[in-house]
Amino acid sequence: MEPYVKSSIKNKVASLEFYHPAHNSLPSELLLSLKNEIDTHSKNNNISIISIKSAGERTFCAGASFTELVAIDNIENGKKFFLGFANVINAIRKSSKIVIISVQGKAVGGGVGLASAADYCLATKWSSVRLSELAVGIGPFVIGPAVERKVGVSAFSKMSLTPDEWQTAQWAKEKGLFHEVFENINQLKEYELHLIEKLSSYNPLALKGLKKVFWEGTEHWDELLDKRAHQSGELILSDYSKKSISKFLQA
Questions:
Q1: Pick from 30, 77, 24: which is nearest to 232 by CA?
Q2: Rg (Cα) of the chain, in Å, rounded?
Q3: Backbone angles phi, psi at 57, to 5 degrees
Q4: Mean pLDDT, to the nearest integer, of 23-28?
Q5: What does the pLDDT read at residue 70?
Q6: Which of 30, 38, 134, 182 has the most CB within a 10 Å radius?
């Protein structure tokens, strides 16, 4: 199948689903589509909840598109690429809607950042997480604020400095990244429907107020993530990064 981001609206809930054949990686085009869909639904007064998930069963999101990363040849294009992740995180942060994200499988790099931006995150026991950026010569700079906000400095530093190690879904729950972890996808889907139904029945003004409370102290993130995107854009041009990504693509 071709990559896509699609959405539907039912009973005050906007459901978004993304897909990419390369383990649900997120190239610039999909990141922009995700950001635009979140912005559009955030402006709809008839919507209270935004639900985000990916297609398939065992991989939630493999993060950045390595094919696109290896083609970056200047800082401007590098920064532009990493701003794609920043813009999605900021779209969720600025949305007045409660955003629920379902993680059915492994999440790497930007996929962990996306999960971290959720107001409520559901997962299965297969949803191991890993920040792989250091292994390719960069770091989780853009997604860092979102991840650190959820798991704390200690857990964030562990993930950042062990780019080859997977952390289990249970570990992620204990650290605060996941709110619920289920045995399988069917249980996750059943609970997601239950949670969305309950949340949709509550006062939308109260939900909007809670959303503001959840994200207090992040008002400077537009500027912060812009700086982090520039930092990543510089690093991706290094010989270390180019060689590491090329080696990965040839594997």
A1: 77
A2: 17
A3: -120, -35
A4: 95
A5: 86
A6: 38
- The helix/strand/coil state of 47 is coil
Tally the C-alpha atoms within 13 A of residue 94's C-alpha that lie toward its C-beta.
17
pTM: 0.96
Q: Which two tokens stand for residue 168?
A: 């289990």
Which amino acid is present at 159?
Answer: M
Buried b (16+ CB within 10 A) or exposed e, 135-160: ebbbbbbbbbbbbbbbbeeebbebbb
Amino acid letter for position 112: V
Q: What structural domains does the chain harbor? A: 4-200 (3.90.226.10)
pLDDT of 251 above 80: no
Runs of H (alpha helix) within 71-143: 75-94, 110-116
Question: What are the tokens at 212?
Answer: 């503001």
**Partners of 13 in the β-ladder:** 10, 49
